[in-house]
Each structure stands twice: as structure tokens, then as C-alpha cells.
Amino acid sequence: MKPAVRFATLILALAVSLGLSACRNDSAQRASDAAEDSGGSAKGDFGPPQGEPVKAVLTSPPLVPPATGRTAPAKVIVELDVVEKEMEISEGVTYTFWTFGGTVPGSFIRVRQGDTVEFHLRNMPDSKMPHNIDLHGVTGPGGGAASSFTAPGHQSQFTFKALNAGLYVYHCATAPVGMHIANGMYGLILVEPPEGLPKVDREYYVMQGDFYTSGKYHDKGHQAFAMDKAIDEHPTYVLFNGREGALTNEKALQAKVGEKVRLYVGNGGPNLVSSFHVIGEIFDKVWYEGGRHYQENVQTTLIPAGGAAMMEFHTEVPGSYVLVDHSIFRAFNKGALAILKTDGAEDKTVYSGKEVDEVYLGDKAVGTPSIAAIGAAAAATASGKVTREERIAAGKLLFAGTCSTCHQPNGEGLPGVFPPLAKSDFIAAEPKRVANIMLHGLHGKVTVNGKDYDSVMPPMSQLTDDEVANIGTYVLNSWGNPGGEITRDDAKKARAAAPVETGPGH
Ligand SMILES: [Cu+2]
């Protein structure tokens, strides 16, 4: 090697190592380095609390309290109320939740490593059950559970030092523990590392839970807790923030293009492990398992029942980003779906455009009429006075989410593949069998408006009788079909009946 070349190589090597060390000065990187070995709980005691006691700011989901901003250990007072209350779990479906702070998940608690936390748990006088709290961020037997057992109308108090930094689940641990958790008794407590977390533009609090109701998914009215389903681990609903649609449509999470977003995501369980994913985003960083190390460039992160993770991403292009449990039937058939709506200018060099909403979301898309029409029809049905118009309005939305992918939003079908429902002579010949076709599917040769189809429509037995009635009535009253009504009774009969026969004779 000639000296000049050798010199250039040296300069290059220097530049590279300088570049690297510049990157290491980034505060996030420092946090990560510190996490190489933070010393754990043995190094987490920064001495006695200093200054006046501070009252913790608690927030309801999806909000997160501001950073503590403290550089010394404090005494922090947390006051949390247990409230048993009836709330909607889905449109037109109610459930008696047991909550920390009146919400599912419970209030978000934020403290700093080394803080001394004086915890006050109050159980409302109108509660029917005793409750307690086990915080995974507590060092000590039961995580506070034994010291916090609280009868209705009573209050208890205990104190702990937050020795480990991280994102921790808290939950009720009163017997039967599974039932208390299944009813919504969980939340998150963030113990910030001493140097704090890197600054971001938005922080949100999302928590997954699985729910077990006496009726099926979308059965309307009040639903009781189903212990047998919980033991079998067969949830009726899998939800973010305790309600189907808690974070969609007008309640979607918000961000702007060019922002850095951090999610604090917990999983209350009681049973399922979440394969947490955001459709259309890649997590720049995931503090997996809620600990102090991060992984970069992650598509899907596992969040165990009773566990949590923090993740960060940067938004480049506008649109709706869909938070799901990628065990995907949970997202589209049990409710585990939320939306982050990002506004701002397009960048066609990053993404050419065309919204994913329609493809993925059907009736859950942002901007479509709210699913309130479905609730209105359900309420009317319950009172025995549902009108054809109410059924049609609800059916239209359900059709969009259930049938339109194949038969198309305008009912025209796709030539040679999916027969038309519009002006269908097959429907006109026997309108009531639409209910049977929905529930049992259809296969074998059918002729619709002079064209033959020999394909398979899968059965959609997950639909409730009401949903079948709504969709059926909508189809009969749309696109030049003969009109009429499919009633709940028709649906019930169709469910019990044999599938429609096709082939010769039809
Ligand atoms: Cu409880």
C-alpha cells in the first residue's frame, strides 16, 4: 500500500469510528448502553425520598401521564379507586366490568426508579366484591396483593420502593383471580429509568384483554361472564382498551406525519398471548417485555399475558395504521383492532398511495358511517319494534364488512367468480333462502341471470340471527331485488335447516 493510500484508509477508519461514537452520544443509545447492566434492584435504591411528597398524575387510557422529570427519588402518593360498573363491550352489548379507576384498562401510573410509592386502594361502597392489587413493579411477596385486600366501602394502604425500571402490569389478585382479571381488572405502571425515556411527540396507552361472555360475539343486550369459556380459553371478545371500537372511527389514536410515536402496550390476559402488530408500520424500537433493552426494526412483538412492551416508530406517510393482534381472527372476528390515524402530506417516494382502509377494515374503516346503526337496530329488536328501515341501515354496514369483498360493494359480483346479488333471479325465485345461504354457504352449480357459477361460498355461521336478518333484509331491498324482509325467526329457522341444494333441478 502506498503511503497516500494508507493515509486515506486511516482517515476513513477514523471517520467511521467518529461516526460511531457520535451515534453513541445519542441519549437513547446511552439508555440502551446503561441497560447492558443496570444492576437491577440491587442498584435501584437511590436513598430516602427527597422533598415534599408528590401526588401521582393518573390518566385514563389511551392517555399517558407526563414524564416525572425528576432527578432525585421522591415519595409518590397514588390513589386508585376500584369501581364495578356496567359499560358497553361492543355496540349494543353491555357487560359488568370491574375496574381500577373506572376504565379498562385501569389508570396509567408513572413513577421513577428509586421512588417510594405510598399506595392507597379504595373500593367503592357500591361494589359487590372485595378486591386487591398485585403490581408487577413491586418487590415483595404478592406484589402488594396481601396488603391491599379491600372490602367494599373500605380503603387500604401500603408502601413500596420501585427498585426496577420498566413497564409493568398491575392486576387484581382476589380469588377467583381469573375472573377478576377477565372482568377488566388490570392496568400499567411505568417505572422510568433514572435518566428518563427519550423524548417523543406522542405517547399512547393500549392494553389487550380477552373476554368471555355468555352469548356469542355480537349477541346484543347484557352479557354475563362465562366461566366455562374462560377455563377453556375460548374468548368471545379479544379487545384493545376494553371495548370493541374503543380506538376506531372518531376515537382513533391521532398522529401527524413526521412524528415519533411511542406506544405502551400491555396484555392483561387472562389467557391469551398477543402477537402485537401495527399494519403498515415497522417498530423502529421495541423495549421487549417492558424491560430496559430494545430491539430495532420489529414487525410483530409478543406480549405475554401479564406482560408489556414499549415500542416507538416514526410516521412517514398519512393514513390509517391498524393495531392488531396478528393472531388475526382475533382482530377481525373478536374485536382486537385499533386505529392510529396519521394526518399530513403524502410522500410518494415512500409510499405510492391508495388507502388500506377498505381492504382490511370493511365496516370498521375510519370515515364510514359509525356502527351506531347496528346498535340502533339491536335496541329496536330488543323492544320488539325493529323497522325494515332500521334493519336495512344496519345490514348495509354489516354487508360491507362481511359480503362485499366477494359480491362487491354494489352487489354486482365479479364475472365468472362471484355471482351478482344485484337483480339476482336466483334470489327472486326464493327470497327467504338468502338467510340459509349466509349461514350454510353454497356450493355446486348455480345459474344466476343466465350465467353459471360452480364455486364455493363459505358458511358464515358466526353471524347472529339479528345480523342475518339485517343483511338479508338489506340485500332483498337493494339493487333491484324484490324487497321483503328476513326476520330473526327466519334466521333461526334457516340455522336449523339443511343447506340449500343446488345442481340439477335448480
Ligand atoms: Cu378484583
Question: What does the model show?
Answer:
One of its GO terms (molecular function) is electron transfer activity. InterPro entries: Cu-oxidase-like_N, Cupredoxin, Cyt_c-like_dom, Cyt_c-like_dom_sf, Cytochrome_c-type_DH, NO2-reductase_Cu. Residues 1-22 form the signal peptide. Strands 1, 2, 3, 5, 7 and 11 form a 6-stranded mixed sheet that branches. Strand 22 and strand 23 (451-457) form a beta hairpin. The chain starts with a helix and ends in a 10-residue tail after the last helix. It is elongated and about 85 Å long. The relative contact order is 0.09. It has helices at 3-24, 27-36, 177-182, 227-232, 329-333, 357-361, 372-382, 388-402, 404-407, 425-429, 433-440, 465-476, 488-496, and strands spanning 54-55, 75-90, 93-100, 109-112, 116-123, 134-135, 155-161, 166-171, 186-192, 202-211, 221-223, 237-240, 253-256, 260-269, 274-279, 283-287, 295-298, 300-303, 307-314, 319-325, 337-343, 442-448, 451-457. The longest helix is centred in the first third of the chain and has 22 residues, at 3-24. It is α/β, with parallel strands linked by helices. The structure holds copper (II) ion. Copper (II) ion (CU) is lined by residues 98, 131, 172, 174, 180, 185. Copper (II) ion binds at residues 98, 131, 172, 174, 180, 185.
Number of helical stretches of at least 4 residues = 13
Which outline best applies? elongated
What Rg is obtained from the alpha carbons, in whole angstroms? Answer: 27 Å
The chain-level mean pLDDT equals 88
State the major sheet.
6 strands, mixed
Report the strand count. 23
InterPro entries: Cu-oxidase-like_N, Cupredoxin, Cyt_c-like_dom, Cyt_c-like_dom_sf, Cytochrome_c-type_DH, NO2-reductase_Cu
EC number: 1.7.2.1
Family: Belongs to the multicopper oxidase family.
Binding site for Cu cation: 131, 136, 171-172, 180, 185, 326
